Amino acid sequence: MNDSVTNILLVGVGGQGILLASEILSEAFMLAGHEVKKSEIHGMSQRGGSVVSHVRFGNEVFSPVVPEGEGDILFGFELLETCRALPLLRPGAKVVVNDYRILPPSILLGQAEYPKGLAEKIKAQFPDFLLVDGQGLALAAGDVRAANTVLLGAVSKRLSIADEVWQQALEKMVPKKALEINLKAFALGRAL
Description:
Layout lengths: L4 E9 L4 H14 L3 E8 L7 E9 L12 E6 L2 H7 L3 E10 L6 H4 L9 H8 L3 E4 L1 H8 L5 H10 L6 H11 L2 H15 L2
Parallel strand pairs: 1-4, 4-5, 5-6
Antiparallel strand pairs: 1-3, 2-3
Helix pairs in contact: 1-7, 2-4, 5-6, 5-8, 6-8
């Protein structure tokens, strides 16, 4: 990561909570006193299409889009989507990925096979790698839908933001009815 701007990419499939995670990230960075820019690219469908969110923070950020080859942290919600985003990373970037597979239509229709060994491929290219059982930890927190917050907790350990700032961001961005479970999910991810 350079001194001026840190580049974070969140990738996955619609319906995985990527946009909420990027909102919480952005809020935490703003609460910590950074300038933040964010951009999102949604797939063709609300659920099931590719989703990519760019979050950039630092002292002065001019563009919301992470330039190709300059990503510092890749925050992947699904293995295949994470692999597709690897060219956006700089050498030595950090990768936190959910150990989860969502089968695209070509695989569901029998036209292709889901690639094997994706986690190993990512780790070989980016040794600062963490594979997370997002669904399992979210279920332990009380709701499988909190997998995004488990992953956010895991990513938070790779950023210099104080615990109380993360807490404030979660309290501000997560609906009250889901806050307790999401705080537990975040703590489980952060403990990894």
